[in-house]
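Bench log. Compound arrived from synthesis this morning; before running ITC I wanted a structural hypothesis for how gibberellin A4 sits in the protein. Inputs:
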Amino acid sequence: MVVLSKPALDHIPFITDHKPTHFPGIPTIDLFNPDSKTLLVKACEEFGFFKVINHGIPVELMDSLEAEAVKFFSLPQPEKEQAGPANPFGYGNKRIGNNGDMGWIEYILMQSNAKSISETSWVISRDNPECFCSAVTDYLSAVKKLACEVLEMLAEGLKIQPRDVLSKILMDEESDSIFRINHYPPCPDLQALHCNLTGFGEHTDPQIISVLRSNNTSGLQISLRDGSWVSAPSDKSSFFISVGDCLQVLTNGRFKSVKHRVIANSMKSRVSMIYFGAPSLREKIAPLSLLTGEGPGKESQYREFKWSEYKISAYKSRLADNRLRFFEK
Ligand code: GA4
């Protein structure tokens, strides 16, 4: 790891491997297209990542939550610190997780249930918590619906029954889904240094499915199957969806969770909002029986585990670790 000498950038790693690659090949799924189920399955198999258009979520819903977040991130640092340190929930600055990962980022992390949204709103927006609370609630209910619709289309595309076999895991009242709002401030020092700085280091998401929306500032990169990194051009009116580790297990490795990362921008702020659709803590995760059985490639690749067990193990790991290796058969 190379560390920059500027004190503010102390302990934040450079990204040294990246030659900028323009990648026009990120699958774009039009939810109005009758063939989208097959295309979704293909995208999850090849990339574990795709962009969704014609999703039906009004752009105003995204813009008003983004405006609330920008209002908070524009506050003086000591005021923001009152909502932290994230452990893991609340306001966080540069530190990601508990095991030494650092990035050029500040963020708000909360559980996606009504109680946590309301409590977070009171610490984030003391003068007008109702506004923040309703912007998060409305946004999350739309995005959760989209995540469930995508999971149902995937079940149909995989020809597994019932249609809600995956979506019902997110619909559980006690689902452990979380919500994260990230702000990557511009980093002008980078212009003189001619290098890439880590915004959010490489990792796979532990949950089932992640739904990301960002403003029009680029920075997100995904790793392809050959190990190369490509940029996902930003698009504020679309959603970017990633396969998480649990969906990799549920599909017995047919879908792969995507390794991704964010690089800091020297000029522009990036704001992203991510819903991580997760099981309840007591949910048992194992390859679905319809995707396992006799014959080559059908043997179960993972042992059954409870989501709570996976989560405990994930929080002991570093961002870039392969968290699924403890659960392989
Ligand atoms: C990655 C995906 C989500 O942002 C997150 C992250 C979590 C955190 O920031 O607290 C983790 C990371 C994420 C995976 C490994 C552990 C936990 C930081 C970390 C080093 C909120 C999540 O669920 O897992």
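What the model suggests: The chain has nine helices and 15 strands. Confidence is low (pLDDT under 50) at residues 1-5.
ITC booked for Thursday regardless.
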